[in-house]
Amino acid sequence: MKSNETQHNSDVNAVIEPHQISKNIKKDCLRLLTRRDHSRKEIQLKMAVKDYESSQVSAVIDDLAQQGWQDDTRYAESYARMRSHKGFGPIRIAYELQQQGIEAHTVDKVLQATSDNWLNLMEQVYNKKYPGPLAMDSNERAKRIRFLLHRGFSSAIITTLFK
User: Fold this and answer.
1) Are residues 8 and 86 in the same domain?
2) Distance in angstroms (rounded) separating the CA atoms of residues 32 and 60
3) What pLDDT, in 10s, does the model give residues 38-79?
4) What's the pLDDT tens digit per position in 95-117?
5) Is 129 found in the same domain as 101?
C-alpha cells in the first residue's frame, strides 16, 4: 500500500511541478518588474541565474508582455531618457540598449523621440565639463573631442560645436 501512495504522490508532484515552477518564475519576474522596467534579455539573464529553464522563462515573459507588465519599447524609452539626462549621447545610448537586447528599429525610434536636439545636450555636457574659454591647443582640443566621443556624440555634431 505504501508503494502505491508513494507512486501516486510522485505522479501528483510531476503534474504540479511544471505549474509551480511557472508560478515561481512569474512571481520572480513580477518582483523585478514592480521595481522598474526591465528588458526581456535582462529578465532572462536574471532568471537563468536562478536556474530556470529558458523556454519556461520565455513563455512567462510572453504572458507578462501580453498583460502589459513587460515592454521592451517602454523600457528603452525610460532608459534612453535617463541616460540622456545624465549627459550621454545617442551613439552610446543606442549601443547600451542593443547590449540589453533591444531591437535596432526600436532603438532608432526611441532615440528620435528622446532628445529633440542632441546638439543642445552636447553643449550642456561640454560647458559643464569645460566652463572656460574655447581657445585651446591641439592636444587639449583632442582631449575634449575624445571626452565627447566617449559620451556617445557623433563626430559630425562635435565638429559643429568646435566651429
Assistant:
1) no
2) 13
3) 999 999 999 999 989 999 999 999 999 999 999 999 999 999
4) 999 999 999 999 999 998 876 68
5) yes
Q: Which of 70, 102, 123 is the last residue of a domain?
A: 70
Range of the domain at 154: 73-162
The three-state secondary structure class of 151 is helix
Residues 103 and 46 in one domain: no
pTM > 0.70: yes or no: yes
Q: Please report where in the chains the cell 532572462 appears, as a residue.
A: 44
Supply the angle between the helices 155-162 and 138-151 in degrees, to the nearest 10: 140
Per the CB < 8 A criterion, the answer to whether 97 and 76 are in contact is: yes
Cα 157 versus chain centre, distance: 25
7/1 Cα distance (integer angstroms)? 10
Residue 159 scores a pLDDT above 50: yes
Read off the C-alpha cell for 54: 529558458
In eight-state DSSP terms, residue 134 is S
Q: Which three cell numbers stand for residue 130?
A: 569645460
How many domains in the chain?
Answer: 2
